[in-house]
């Protein structure tokens, strides 16, 4: 038995065995210490990794929330812009229909009860706007008056004579207007022209009429 063997050992052998046992004990203790330290370090690393993952996850979540909010903001802005664009397009369509209808109604202007005085006003304003820069010394200026047939009937020759005396010019009818209604005047050489037809007047006024017409 072991006990019997121990009894047969010399003191030196017993000392060596004790030393070996002590060394083994110390080695086991060191191994346990290293293992415990490794386990502690591993747990620390795990906790750090978990905390880092949680922090990164929070960062990623916040970034995702910001991006989602930005996307919602962009989508809302785009929707508002599209709605505004559609509103403006419909406004333009509405205004165009209104002015197109107004231009159509101008064709019946000659049937208005006061169109005679309106035609005289158109002619007087046209001659004033044409100006007298082309008058040659000693010779009266000749102004050619172009009107549609209905306006010519509303004016008559007397209106041309009266206004000619008023402005000291010679007014005569020229080629009739076939596509517009009202009055256009030009010098006999064609260098100066003033279009005072109803359609042109409406076009000149249209920009200033857009807002009140829309309201």
What key attributes describe this structure?
single chain, 215 residues, alpha+beta, 4-stranded mixed beta sheet, 5 helices, 4 strands, rod-shaped
Structure description:
With 215 residues, the chain is of the alpha+beta class. Helices cover 72% and strands 11% of the residues. It contains five helices and four strands; from the N terminus they run H-H-H-E-H-E-E-E-H. A four-stranded mixed β-sheet has the order 2-1-3-4. Helix 2 crosses helix 5 and helix 3 (115-130) crosses helix 4. It is rod-shaped, with a radius of gyration of 53 Å. It starts with a helix and ends with a helix.
Write the layout of secondary structure elements.
Elements lengths: L1 H7 L2 H95 L9 H16 L10 E7 L1 H19 L1 E5 L8 E6 L5 E5 H17 L1
Parallel strand pairs: 1-2
Antiparallel strand pairs: 1-3, 3-4
Helix pairs in contact: 2-5, 3-4
Brief characterization of the structure:
By secondary structure, the chain is of the alpha+beta class. The chain is built from 5 helices and 4 strands, in the order αααβαβββα.
